[in-house]
Amino acid sequence: MQKILRFTFWQLRLLAKYQILTIAFIIAAFYIAILLLLSWLQTDVITTLFVFLDPTAMGFIFIGVMVLFEKGDNTLEAQVVTPMQTGEYLWAKALALLVPALICSSAIAVSTQGLDFHPHSFFISVILTSLIFTFIGVGGVMWVDTFTQYIVLIPLFTAPTVLPLLNYFGLTRWDFLYIIPTQATLNLLSDSFDKHTSLMQLADIAYLALWTYLSYIFARRQFEKKMYQ
User: Fold this and answer.
1) Three-class SS of residue 108?
2) What is the DSSP string of 6-63?
3) 153 burial level (CB within 10 Å; 0-12, 13-18, 19+)
């Protein structure tokens, strides 16, 4: 665990070096500015949408940028010959990106809700969603060598995950969308702002935890397949 934490701090330094932290905070500031300048958008629905977009985009897009930078600097290949195990490397990456995701998501929520929201379901949803998209991003970026190629992958991986927004905005009532983990994310975020608790929240948390595990397995297999072949 200590090794993971040390490597997490190193990954945070890389996030700062590659200006990923700066970009993340600028995007969050943009969301907050929109909410503060356009008071009619200061609703639970819009706040949930912005918070939802933050860890999903940050997890998937930024991990891709980070890994591609490492490929360009030839530091990713060096990972293969270090004593750090693949799982430790992946978790350090995910935890490093979790830090700005939590900061930015919290700032967006506080900008409109103050501290008047349910913290447990809020933070659990942000944490698990960020981990899921980071691991999926690792698995995807292992198959490309340039950001242009990664841009092609982004809609292929993320398009299905935004479909639950159709249910959330009342455009559809498709029960089958509940199989997509982001439906659980939206449920938890919405409940956190409504300060609503129910047994269904436990089911949503368990489902996100399952997807976190599955996405980690996917990332690990793709990483080992490409780096140790």
Assistant:
1) helix
2) HHHHHHHHHHHHTTHHHHHHHHHHHHHHHHHH-GGG-SHHHHHHHHHHHHHHIIIIIH
3) middle
Contacts of 45 (CB under 8 A, 6+ apart): 168, 169
Please tell me the pTM assigned to this model: 0.90
Phi/psi for 18 (5° steps) reads: -85, 5
* Single-letter code of the amino acid located at 104: C
- State the angle between helix axes of 86-113 and 199-227 in degrees (0 to 180), rounded to the nearest 10: 140
Give residue-wise pLDDT tens across range 141-184: 888 888 888 888 887 878 888 899 999 888 888 888 899 999 99
How many domains is the chain built from?
A: 1
Domain that holds residue 20: 2-227
Q: Are 201 and 122 in contact (CB under 8 A)?
A: no
**Residue 166 and residue 172: Cα distance in Å, rounded?**
6
